[in-house]
Amino acid sequence: MTTTAIPADRETWERLAAKLHPQGRAIIDGTATEAEDGRTFDDVSPIDGSLITQVARGSSADVDRAVAAARRTFEAGHWRRTEPRERKKILRRFAEAIRADTVRLALLETRDVGKPISNSVSVDVANCAACIEYYAEFADKLYDEVAPTGPDDLALIRREPLGVVGAIVPWNYPLIISCWKVGPALLTGNSVVLKPAEQSPLSGIRLAELALEAGIPPGVFNVVPGYGEEAGKALALHPDVDLITFTGSTEVGRLMLRYAAESNLKRVALELGGKTPQVVFADADLKAAAYDIAWGIYYNSGETCHAGSRLIVHEAAREPLLEEIRAVAATITLGHPLEASTQMGALIDGKHMQRVLGYIEGGVADGARVRLGGHQALKETGGFYVEATVLENVRPQMKVAREEIFGPVLSVMSFSDEGEALQMANDTPYGLAAAVWTADINLAHRMSQALRGGTVWVNSFDRSTMATPFGGFKMSGSGRDRSPHAIDKYCDLKTIWTAYR
Ligand code: NAD
pTM of the predicted model, to two decimals? Predict the structure, then answer.
């Protein structure tokens, strides 16, 4: 395990990036392997449109090989029968290996996704290691149950691993979301096949290499990179996969349920899209609200499922709040993601950038007004950047108020009373999160109970730890990542009833 010092300047990051030869092969049964048919796809960086490397284009044949390896190791029990204390040790070693590899992992993440390197270091890699460490601790501390019975019987209720877990993840937080799934899946003794998004395959591949180095047996954690329609679909349709744990769009989440129905009725856990409302009452601390609202939409360039993309503000507070938001946005540095001072980087690719710009244009055509930003930025880089944007005069029925833009675009609507605020906030098919800002504790209490979302923040935004569950109501999904609650997704309950005679 080697630890490299975290560079402080772009020059050093670029020098390290030039020396980094990312590994783009699948990891199947402990071995880096090309796709069976030899095909690859281009992994392109949104920072400047340059080619990073060729990556194995997994097909159903590769998924079959990975699932077979996962099944074989699961049945052999190399991992699930490992003593809990030993499993904890290995998972902790895995977390340490992730930390020791921070520089490389952060570079892989930033070059694939275009996010600022400082975020990749201190948020993505750090949280990924913390997640594995968190679940490691359960290995020798999680008890099963004994049910109440009569004196001549013993009923044990045991948690058992499901078997082969297929994990399909998106490109916005590849490391964190992979670990949210791999952590509890491995803790409980499952074998895993991870399918990273085609836009960001490299950190997931590296993660599997680190797991092997840490002592997780070959075949327990496999990675098959490739396209959703090919590798992803094959994994979700596979008859020998016991669970698909999916994070991505609501549209593809719907397909996961269909694939499960068409194959083996595998379990499906879904973490999907969002359109989070930030509800601000006139008595709120507008300075504090503005700070969190700006960062809540501009962090990760708005490519966050729970980004606070709808601002629903009391009409009396609208003008002062928008001025405060503009002041915060002015302090957020949009720039080259390897520059240490950059706080907002690139969008994932050209197609997505055009989609985001299309939403802005469409919003204006529908009657919204650009209050801030609204344009492509840093064109000369060849990368895909969009300015921090505020759209005002938005009405609830407009597309920019209803659909997930997944970019740095805040849609502003206003209300005149509590009932209208609640109605607007809940008027969405999504239910991932919500926030309410007010100095009135009773109002905060009423709103936090009535808002429909997996997380409701009060006078704050995006605060969380591994100890709090994360996931959605309504069409934002089912099941939860993080916290002890996530563990249940990866287990079946078995009752063992013994009669004493
Ligand atoms: P996406 O749904 O297009 O892709 C997600 C994953 O599914 C990728 O690995 C992709 O290759 C795969 N996929 C695509 N089509 C498939 C198919 N037909 N069969 C099987 N797999 C397929 O989503 P995205 O564009 O990568 O990510 C953005 C979306 O993810 C947004 O909607 C965002 O809100 C959501 N998201 C949700 C959470 C959450 O926790 N709720 C977190 C992050 C992102």
Answer: 0.97
